[in-house]
Amino acid sequence: MRRNIELKTLRSKFLVFILVPVITVLLALSVLSYLSARDLLIAQMKESGISALRASAEKLSASIVQIHSMLRMISLSENLEEKSDSYRQRLFVRLTQVPDDAITSVFMGFPDGRFIRGKDDPLPERFDPRKRPWYIEAMNLPPGKMEGATEPYLDASTKRPVITLYRRVFKGAGSLMGVLGVDVDVILGSQSITKEIELPPGGHMILVNNSGTILLHPDERAIGLDLDYTGESLDIKVSGDIKNQEVPFIQYIDKRFGAKWHVGFHRVPAAGSSIVVMFPMERVPKPLRLLTLQMIAVASPFLIGLLVLLLVIIKKVSQPVVDLTNSAVKVAEEDSYHNPLEVKSSDEVGRLTEAFNTMMEGLRQRDFIRDTFGRYVTKEVVEELLDSPDGLKLGGEKREVTIMFSDLRGFTPLSEHLSPDQIIDLLNRFLGKMADIISSYKGTVNEFVGDAVLAFFGAPVKRQDSPARAVACSLAMQLAMEDINHQNKEQGLPSVSMGIGVNTGEVIVGNIGSEKRVKYGVVGHHINLTSRVQDATVGGQILITPSTYEQVKDIVFIRSSRSVNFKGVDEGVTIYEVAGIKGPYNLTLPEETRDTKPLENPLAVSVFKITGKRVDGSPLAGQLTHISTPWARVNLPEQIKLSSEIRLDIPVPGQVESECIYAKVAEVTDKGDNYDHLVRISYLTPALTKVIDIGS
Asked: Where in the chain is the domain with CATH 3.30.450.20?
């Protein structure tokens, strides 16, 4: 019989000998301690809440009684009927100066329209006390009632919300002499009462009349509204209790704005109102340290017993674990993922074996991720591959993407005058910044070609707004050039400028290469077209094709447009110069003036056309007439096509070799006997600044 009930699995041993008693005892202790602490906390909170509300109510009642007593004393003991207006005013001035910041004025209004008060704030023109709320309410009091208080209204002189406590004053003959009043500033009064109650963060105190209307509130916008204006069921319930007028005080803990709140009120009969306090329960300190200490003290013996039992059990299961350890060491040292180990039992050792097999599968997945990161750069490409293990296979698909091609102007001649370290430093700074910007706009960098960047938008993740992202990214890249050039200047490097071409079209996108080396990229006619559009730019310029323009025309600002004949394209292509983009991006390039400073003595120059970064043909003799970096004007006997790259050789007295300016043609004007070429300078040799005055 004993053999039949013997515990055979580790799970049953843990369950019977350790887990069941420990969990049962600890759970019971936790529940009892929590319930005890919770009940204690709620009881203390309610008791302190009622005490604080009662204290505030008593203070408010005392203040109201004191003010009404003052009004009664003035009306009965000062014999105001026989006093002059100047005496009355001096009296009101003294009373206004009582040490209570909330009392802002003591005054009296008369049936003939006279008004005497104890403060000097200017009154509006044609002020008539008989039209003020306090006077009207006093006149409407029942015959046996002498005093009362108004709802909040704006003071005629200060325009701040006030409540007026008033009293009718009669002459000895029984006719009305006037109405005495005391103004109480609503905001200052609220602050005074709130001092009696230490509320947790997020809590506030409210004064509400018997009709549920808010009289005092930290948020002035809520004054005059019903307490239930929030629409919360708890606020509606409290507002109903206040309007009932049979409940002297009450407290609730219930849902409000999706969280538990404490809301309570205490009626102030003397004021015909109630003080309401509300605060979120989550902000209430929770004194549960005692509970924690109790649980630790009770659980310690059980934890010690648990440790002893674990030592016994570990000894019994150590040998199978050693076997698993040897297998794990083999995997770690030889990096070989052998076939999964056989699971021979259903106890914890068996589960451990299953976990080991799962671990090996995880290592395989780790290597897959490692290889993926080694072959792919863009995060989105990596995520797509991880979702599809077949993603590394060669192949692609047709897809419409937006291609962006950027290139530094004049970098080739610039690199001839820099050291290798300076070139690498400049390129790394430029390409690193551009790659970060492209990534932030969800673009994919296809490749870096020297100082050029080829990127595309819309793959691997297809997005409807890819053209807009590409244009916004181009603007952000151009705007970043100012920071790059600032850093170049700090490093003693020259400033550089960039041209960007953007085009949208259908390409082949996918894995390109061999089984040993693969690249995720794009190929197709539109890549070449984008490159040629970029070639048509001058430094600082962004040009887009019609296919891109049609998809972003409602949100971009176009500076100019022109038709260009590109190699490999049968018809002329209209290209648009982008100045900015609105919508969620709101990026705008600064206006660039093309004004140039005339030279006192134009310089003779030899102008060479540059094709494919090489001199093409014989030089043209011309004159450099104007220059203000980055713009210059050159007169030539024949016209050079727009966007052509040229080199201006300028002879320098005393030098064998000429100094050079590399530039791109931006405008051409026919002067009749010659052609005026406006060019944007890409690079000029440093020695030129010593020969001619180069404005900026």
From this structure: 10-287
Which tokens belong to 452?
A: 């050029």
Q: Please list the residues that pair with 251 across neighbouring strands.
A: 264
Q: How far apart are CA 251 and CA 236, in angstroms?
A: 14
Q: Which residue has the higher pLDDT, 58 or 433?
A: 433
Q: Does the pLDDT at position 504 exceed 70?
A: yes
Please list the residues that pair with 407 across neighbouring strands. 499
The CA radius of gyration of the chain, in Å to the nearest whole number, is 43
What backbone phi and psi angles, to 5 degrees, belong to 150?
Answer: -90, 165
Query: How much of the chain exceeds pLDDT 70, in percent?
Result: 73
SS3 track for 118-135: CCCCCCCCCCCHHHCHHH
Kindly report, as residue ranges, where domains of CATH 2.40.10.220 are found in the chain: 598-690
* Residue 194 φ/ψ region, left for φ over 0, alpha for ψ in the -120 to 50 degree band, beta for the rest: alpha
Which contiguous run of DSSP H or E holds residue 241?
helix 233-244
Contact of 166 with 137, CB cutoff 8 Å: yes
Distance in angstroms (rounded) separating the CA atoms of residues 24 and 30: 10
Partner residues linked to 620 by β-bridges: 607
Q: Give domain 394-588's CATH superfamily.
A: Nucleotide cyclase, GGDEF domain (3.30.70.1230)
CB atoms within 10 A of CB 364: 11
Helices and strands (H and E) in the chain: how many:
14, 26
What 3-state class would DSSP assign to 674? coil
Q: What pLDDT, on the 0 to 100 scale, is given for residue 41?
A: 64
Instruction: Quote the CA–CA distance of 683 and 498 in Å, as a whole number.
Output: 12
Cα separation, 640 vs 43, whole angstroms = 92
Which pTM was predicted?
0.49
What lies within 8 Å, CB to CB, of 653 at 6+ separation is none
Most confident of 371-380, 442-451, 685-694: 442-451
- What fold characterizes domain 598-690? Thrombin, subunit H (2.40.10)
In one letter, which amino acid is 686? P
**Which stretches of 110-244 are assigned E, i.e. beta strand?**
115-117, 147-149, 153-154, 161-170, 176-185, 204-209, 214-216
Q: How far apart are CA 432 and CA 174, in angstroms?
A: 93
Alpha helices in 284-419 (DSSP H): 289-334, 348-375, 379-387, 411-415
